[in-house]
Amino acid sequence: MASKLLKIAPLEAQNQIELSLRQAFELLETQLRPPFPLTIPTPEEYSQLNRAILYGVLCEPHFAKIQMKYLHAVVTDGYCFFVNLLTTIVDELYSKLVKSARIQLISLVSEMIYVSAVGIDGLLVSLLRQIVGGDFSDGNLWLCFELVSLFFSKWNWLVEEEPQVLRNGLYTYLRVLSDHCRFPGDSKLEALRLIEIEFCIKVLREQFHLCLRIGRDLIRLLQDLVHVPEFRAVWKDLVSNAGEFKTQGFEDISRLYRQRTSSRYFLLRITPEMESQLRFLLTHVKLGSQKRHQAWFLRKFLSGSERETLIIDIVRFICCGHHPSNDIIQSDVIPRWAVIGWLLKSCRKSYVEANVKLALFYDWLFFDERIDNIMNVEPAMLLMVNSIRKYVAMTHTLLEFLLLLVDNFDSERKDIIVKGVTSSFGMLARKGVVGSIHVLTSCDALSPPLKEWLGRFLKAGVSKELQQVHLPGPSVPSFNLPSSTTLETQTVIAGELTESKCAPNDGVGTKAFDSSVPISVEPVTSYSSLVVNSESLEDSIENVVHRFVETVRKSNTIDVQILEKILFSFANLNGHKVTGDFPLSPQSLSSKIAKELELNGHKLFSPLESIPNFSNCDDVVHSATALIIRTFIFSQHEKLLDMLLSWSGHGYPVGKCLLSYVLRLAYEAHVAGNVMLPDNSIKANDLGMPFLFLHMDEYFSFLNGGRKDSLEADLSTAKMDHQLVANLVDGAFSAYRCFLMYSRNSLDKAADVTPARLLFSDLGSCSKWEKQILKFSFCSIFYYLSDLSTGEEDIIKLLVTLLDQADVVLMQFEIGLKKFSIFGENTETIFYLIKNSLNWGLLEQHKVWGLIRSELAVSKVQVEKLILEIFCSGILDPNSASIAVEGLLMLCSCRMPTPELVGAIMLLPNTAFQDFSAAVLATWAVSNASMLFDSLANFLEKLGNEKGDLFTSTGIRINHSAISWLLSYFNTQGMKDNDILSKLSVSILDMKSMLQL
After folding, report:
1. What residue spans of 181-309 are helical by DSSP H?
2. Where does 287-335 have alpha helices with state H?
3. Which residues pair with 681 in a beta bridge?
4. Burial annotation 369-390 (CB, 10 A radius, 16+ → b, else e)
5. CA 361/CA 315 separation, integer angstroms
6. For a designed S-S bond to 733, which of 697, 784, 854, 954 qualifies (C-beta 3.0 to 4.6 A apart)?
7. Which helix (H) or strand (E) holds 406?
């Protein structure tokens, strides 16, 4: 069947993305026509509905308005999923889309801007990447025109909401204008060229403060357009009249020289497909086997007459956007310098070759060890050195070009250029990229005038010590990790993991908590140097994210170390002065990570029902989900919290997984505490506790800035301090509470959702856990999260539903020891809990009353008030409340007969369960007769003083069964208790008269 969406060759395999969209459309096509269904779709139905609507809009333009109205009506995620689908289509299918689908795509982009859809910035960047340099086909020129027109029409939105997209657009159009302006007489290009020039000049003149963020490559692009009158005026102002731009801090063009350009700009000028092929070439193809791959690449991407200009962008990307790992550098994979050498030889036009050389050496001219990355200048040096033996002409032309740049690039600011180039040579020598600069100055194959020229330059700009440096070794980048410090001096951001004290004066073992729930907005000091060399953080994140994506896509595995770098680097953005606005918000970064993982078969925050038990959890311990949770627990940083909230808002069970992690950690810590060594320490490797072991290992790594030094390496045989383990558990529960509190703030305020309700929802996922662990989990909840769980009916009902009687009894022991409280001390809360429990199952009622008795027997709750309220409320039906009354009877039996409690028993109404009062008194008469009669005397004294009030029209009466039992008791005892009766303020006759009232 012919595709309505893609241009597919006859023998080409069916595209899976198109297939998923088409199948969703065919399944739901009837629902995309009015009248629309009024039901709320499930998450799976919602995903399918988005796919169906997208396919319908792209393939059936005449129904597009109707289908978009339906999308607006059902959207629940800020259009995030819909925009992600669009981005995927642009990245992977744009070149194959039929013309009508491309037109509809641009229309959809405009609509998504109108509704401020989540992730729209990434979609616009993906479209900019589809503009191919040197491509003068109608389709490519049409896309250029449509996007620049869109930017004009949405100008205010771009300036106010998405300035980074505006900068990306400027970089793109400055670059393609260098191609379009080479043919001034081409009528087909005239209108497009004019609107592109107008857009670029508007951005440069009106938003120059945004343009500054592009950095030094802005100068490189403008130099290529200086022959265009409009840009010539801008150039003159840049060089000699900086005040014309009215931008604070910009006084001279040298300000741009000192600012390195982010690698994301170089990605703009190569398509995703081209990027994928280049990365494959640079990570998988062996040196010596690259020729057929290079030939294919030339035919695929550089075969057009004007496509040669793409080599400039490719070289810039290889130098600054692709930094191989040490493993790749030390392997036999084709190195970057060899690929650049091949690209240089592929240049047929002299002006293109000159621009490629400039792209190669550009960072040399302004190199500053404090902000620049040695990996950006490494390829040029290695290409010169490694070409000496067989291709000395390459070394000669490159070295000559570099020295000409030093003399001629900017004669007025030559000191900056000299300093940059000498710094490059010095860093490359010190880091061992080359053994010595002497390899160039003493090369017999180079012409004597060139060697003399180089010698004069080095003598003038480089110290004699530098010329003599000789550091043999491979070309390995330096990683500047933090210096070693003792663990005692390390602290954790967002509050140290110190021991929390018990709540004051309650006598119950519940952890104190801060209701304000502080969250750190400071940079995470540990791991701040995970960024390679001096590379600024926002570029590091982009590079690391890209490496993560490539790893997932190509190997179908998750590199948790790369993911860890992404999280810590992202958290550090607040604390660093960056050279540009990082384009990813916590929401879009979290969306990108989840999207890439899911596309390759990995799911973040997988349903807890599928997680194995504690004894078989290796996959869970080392998962991406566990890493994200650990990172948040250690840092409790605002940006990481926002990422968790974003995932949660899109339906991922973040809270459930976070609680699961915390409870697993607490359980292993509990087991470790039970096998504590005599010196109050624990041997981790003897306990079989991978969860606790890895958590502590990562904690030490966090404190040491990410280093796995000898301390962590020996942790398996080291003794773990018991107090440290306890503090780590405290910190984990604190992080979970923080997540719940902020989750509540992010939800609809009108919704009846509290942190306690969220906790209950998360606890529900534990129902299939082993009983022993489940019982411990509930104990931990009431201990560490007492403010969220104590007295919560849903949580208590879940407890008695999931635990068997044996586990409930064990909990009763711990409650009796005051390790934690389940019901609290608020009598109203306990009353309503008891009232609602009357509708529970019989087994659940038995269990809950066992817990109530155990707690109220040792708590300060005014049991007398509770009993009076229960009996006077009329809720005790003989058919449904027998278990509750039995529980109250046993509760009273284990309490002391205080005057208040005895008075309450004497005043219980004569309704259902009439003998309850007599049974309680009889029990007390056996267990504590002396106190009973003292309390009874106290009650009767008050009764006599207030008799006129007690027996009025209010209808309050002494309980009949209580008086009957007392009279019977006295008669049975006879004169033996005359000494007791003589102490009473009323006689037996008075009691009898009360009974008759």
Report:
1. 187-206, 208-211, 217-223, 229-240, 254-257, 263-268, 272-284, 291-301
2. 291-301, 310-320, 326-329
3. 721
4. eebbbbbbbbbbbbbbbbbbee
5. 10
6. 784
7. helix 392-408
Beta bridge partners of residue 6, listed in sequence order: 97
For residue 432, give the nearest of 373, 372, 472 by alpha carbon: 472
- Angle at alpha carbon of residue 938, lines to 934 and 943, rounded to 5°: 145
Q: Where are the beta strands (DSSP E) in 700-767?
A: 719-721
597 close to 551: Cβ distance less than 8 angstroms: no
What pLDDT does residue 36 have? 82
Strand partners, 682: 720
Q: What is the pLDDT of residue 112?
A: 95
Q: Residue for token digits 């990481």?
A: 640
Is 591:119 a contact under the CB 8 Å cutoff?
yes
Q: What is the pLDDT of residue 574?
A: 52
List the one residue out of 225, 261, 268 whose CA is nearest residue 131. Answer: 268
Below-70 pLDDT ranges, the chain: 1, 461-560, 572-584, 601, 607-621, 673-690, 704-721, 745-752, 912, 943-956, 974-997
Beta-ladder partners of 520? 637
Given 3-state DSSP classes, what are the helix, strand and coil percentages for the chain, each rounded to the nearest 5?
Answer: 65, 0, 35
- Name residue, tokens 């993305």: 17
| Distance, CA of 210 to CA of 370 (rounded, Å) | 23
In order, the DSSP letters of 69-80 are: HHHHHH--STTH
**Cα–Cα distance, 244 to 234 (Å, whole number):** 9
**How many separate helices (H) and strands (E) can be counted in the chain?**
53, 2
CA distance 497 to 976: 65
Structure tokens at 858: 């040792």
Name the β-bridge partners of 637. 520
CA gap 590, 611 in Å, rounded: 22
How far apart, in whole angstroms, are the C-alpha atoms of residue 563 and residue 175?
Answer: 33
Per-residue b or e along 323-341, where b marks 16 or more CB atoms closer than 10 Å to that residue's CB: bbeeebbeeebbbbbbbbb
Task: Write down the pLDDT at residue 753.
Answer: 75
Strand partners for 286: 333
- Non-local (6+) Cβ contacts of 696 within 8 A are 684, 715, 720, 724, 725, 728
Pick from 718, 632, 587: which is nearest to 120 by CA? 587
Rg of the chain over CA atoms, in angstroms? Answer: 38
Query: Rounded to 5 degrees, what angle do the CA atoms 140, 142, 147 make?
Result: 100
Distances in Å between the Cα of 218 and the Cα atoms of 249, 413, 673, 925 are 17, 17, 61, 95
Distance, CA of 53 to CA of 67 (rounded, Å): 6
C-alpha closest to that of 113 among 76, 145, 150, 163: 150
At residue 901, what is the residue type? L
